Amino acid sequence: GLMWLQQGEGGSSLRHTCEQDDGLSQYGWLMHDGENFGVQEIHDGDLFLKTEFVKRPGGEHGGDWSWRITARMQGTGSPAPLLSLFFYVATDRQGTLEPHLENKTRLAAVTGTSEELGRFTLTFLRPTVEGGEDPKYASYNYLDAASLGLHRLTEVVRSSLSNRFVFAPRGKSRRRFFAVDSFRGLPGTAGEPPRGRLLLHQVTLEPPGTVEVTFESGSVVARPGQLAGASLSAALARHTAAFEQRFEETFGLGRKGFPPPQRRFAQAALSDMLGGMGYFHGRSLVQSPLQEHPVPAPETALFTAVPSRSFFPRGFLWDEGFHQLLLARWDPALSREVIAHWLDLMNAEGWIPREQILGEEARAKVPPEFVLQHSETANPPTLLLALERLLPDAPLPYLHRLFPRLRAWYDWYNRTQAGPLPLTFRWRGRDPNPERFLNPKTLASGLDDYPRASHPSPEERHLDLRCWMALASRVLAGVAERLGEPAGPYRGMEQALSDNGLLEQLHWAQELGAFADYGNHSSAVRLRWQRLAPAAPGRPPPAPQLVREVQEAPRPRFVGALGYVSLFPLLLQLLRPNSPRLPAVLATLRSERQLWTPFGLRSLARDSPLYMQRNTEHDPPYWRGPIWVNINYLALRALHAYASAPGPQRERAAEIYQELRHNLVANLFRQYSETGFLWEQYSDSTGRGQGCHPFAGWSALVVLVMAEDY
């Protein structure tokens, strides 16, 4: 890995893992093919860093790869502030490392072994001037320390820094700088056994400059030469041209008339998703109704994309289906592998934990209250959206391996998420303390704080889950038919759940003029401040708390919230093109008083009671107004289908489709141009990106929208 430090700021600004609060103005992959090549740019104040890599396949362990870091300052005087680059290699419970030093301070190379890589050599080449091969003056420092775990490497390096070192190029002024010195341990870790070994090579130079690192596998024979210098430059140029050609062949944005800046934006969106993919290993912490205390699940591995490198650097079940819609288009084999990894996480009952917090590195980024996974809690089966896209060309042996897992997953939903009436469904695991929330969250649905019945009860009927189960039935029938397995039960369930008459009977709210959830609901609910009595005479009173006040008793009824959930019969294309309800759904979608904005569809109608309302004192609105790209993608996909199908709403669907596609693409590109990032969500009043960033998860679906590839 790589860390860096702009000298003169003290050791506190050491950069390593992607963090929201680092305040970097821009960073992300501009090109990444998911396998052999990538180009990333990082803007940290006046510092510009470019990281590039090329992998050269060969041997039995994945081959060789080389990495080039280019650093320069923008807009600073002379001399430029010193920059330290820290290249490190660490083992984690297995493997060996052997340092090879020059002059006792410069780590020239590391030889080592690991289970997956066999024997290897890492070589740290001397820095050169930018764009050339002339040597660049640098100071070198070296650290050899026990690793206390990958999640603590930043602390180990920061605690080893000392400013007793002097940068002294011949004929220039001398400058002190921070460098790794010696590691004396971290507070509170005395007696803790090391997890592995950390070797670190620090290069301190005055930008601009370039540093290269080569990794050479011991099992490669007849190596054509070191992949460095001119050879690396030529390989990067070849891969760049191949990436751009493949991108155009796959998505056709040039043929559609998109100018180069918008094509580069789309390339960056795809590349940042590919560059954020990770391989995770560890155990989930699971709470089952059958056990009193949480237990660690069996050890497992997961290869997956992630929603956000900075804020959500781990796997999320419902996000991943959306990720794979894009990746399945770019690299079907890669996508099939990810889907198989996710299905391999299934337990004996057919349950998959919705959030994958595997290993200490992942756990270090998660608030404690979110670590525990509850085995009765579902998540939308969006992986089936991607699998449906992959199905026509998926190899039969692959589908044979998948099918028993798909069946178990499908049966688990039907068994554990069934609703109060036949052919109804209910998300389990809503927040158990309703008095704390304006509307108890439904994390299982993926739509977190989207308004549901105000008083959770077994009588609830959740519209979105019913629609997801219709999709699941259709996809399982398709897989069964390809394999020659009995598909009748799945087709029968698909037809029952797609029956428009029954859908209306169970979920059409006449008073709302829309489809809706049903449950024990009061529309007269608010949060108010409650003052608490002092704990004892003479003691100051505790801080007031926001508590829920129910001003009208709940009763069984349709939930008066018009928003994304109301659209699900359209989003998953259960409504027939000639449905008498389709005009009303399209009108809701296009109404500026309700869901329409110049930037995309908002998540909750502006005239809904809980529009942009906080859920608790510390819980700002999340799915109560902001624009989310994944649901806008589903809306565009559905509108495109209705615009192509014979029916009375064909022209209206086509008009709305064109407008919505233009609004969404224009706003995401505008926000990327202004801020340098894709965002988790977008303001429905200004279009401004908000939430976490970079969010090259489902927001990267804008690439498929630009390509009109649904």
UniProtKB/TrEMBL annotation:
- Highest taxon in the source lineage: Eukaryota
The protein's name is Mannosyl-oligosaccharide glucosidase
- What family does this chain come from, according to its entry? Belongs to the glycosyl hydrolase 63 family.
The record's listing under PANTHER family reads: MANNOSYL-OLIGOSACCHARIDE GLUCOSIDASE (PTHR10412:SF11)
Subcellular location per UniProt equals:
Endoplasmic reticulum membrane
Q: Which residues form a coiled coil?
A: none
Which Pfam families does the UniProt entry name for this protein? Glyco_hydro_63 (PF03200), Glyco_hydro_63N (PF16923)
Organism of provenance: Thinocorus orbignyianus
